[in-house]
Design goal:
It comes from Ignisphaera aggregans (strain DSM 17230 / JCM 13409 / AQ1.S1). This protein is an all-alpha fold. The protein is about 75% helix and about 0% strand.
């Protein structure tokens, strides 16, 4: 790891932590109860895409730990769930983009199809009685908005958003969100959560996965690609 990478990691972690804390305080986004919207996800995604998976992954891991210490102060929860979930998710984004260099119609189809995986899970949860009607409507609405944003972004901003980017963002965030959902559920089986809850039912892991993915993917799609394109243009001029 070079000195440049270390500097970039520190910069990425600082920005990620600061925006995460500001979001929690309701400065950049409203804080509603214990549910936090997380627009800061675009920051480590940019670093992962432009500077590589190690920079993006480690920066995200450090940044979320700092943010967690301010928000709930539970180091064990952060180190066992938040830190690895962020590292894996944002590492995957950079790794996939480094490996997949060309776009094709097959990537376009795959990048759209993958958005429906959590939707299918939402319908299954409702069908088997794990979601009541009110929650089903809420999750379905969030799903519809996220998918609509995805399709709109690809249709009107092709020059800024590439199919391989959407695929990488989706896979990275989906894996990270799944880790968070399962990790928080497992943690609750042995230790109390910061909210005091314990022994959550296994379905809670799927609910948190769905909520995390569908409330964060729009920020990745809308904010990350234009900033990456701007950085690329700046690099070409230097």
């Amino acid at each position: 790891m070079s000195i440049r990478d270390i500097v970039l990691i520190v910069f990425s972690a600082s920005l990620y932590a600061l925006m995460g804390i500001a979001t929690y305080l309701g400065i950049f986004a409203p804080a509603v109860g214990v549910v936090r919207f997380w627009p800061a996800v675009f920051i480590p995604a940019i670093f992962s895409e432009v500077f590589g998976p190690i920079v993006g992954g480690i920066g995200a891991a450090i940044g979320i730990f700092i943010s967690d210490m301010y928000v709930h102060g539970n180091a064990l929860l952060s180190l066992s769930v938040g830190v690895p979930a962020n590292f894996i998710g944002f590492y995957l984004i950079g790794y996939i983009l480094n490996r997949v260099k060309k776009d094709s119609k097959y990537l376009f189809i795959a990048s759209i199809a993958i958005q429906f995986i959590p939707l299918i899970m939402t319908i299954a949860l409702y069908f088997y009685g794990y979601l009541d009607t009110a929650l089903f409507i809420i999750y379905t609405a969030i799903t519809a908005i996220a998918i609509a944003v995805t399709l709109l972004a690809l249709s009107i901003a092709r020059r800024y958003i590439l199919p391989r980017e959407l695929l990488a963002y989706s896979i990275g965030l989906m894996v990270g969100s799944l880790y968070i959902g399962i990790g928080v559920w497992l943690f609750s089986q042995f230790f109390p959560l910061p909210s005091g809850e314990r022994n959550l039912p296994v379905v809670a892991s799927l609910l948190w996965f769905l909520w995390t993915y569908y409330t964060e993917i729009p920020f990745l799609l809308i904010l990350t690609p234009p900033i990456v394109r701007a950085i690329e243009r700046w690099y070409r001029r230097v």
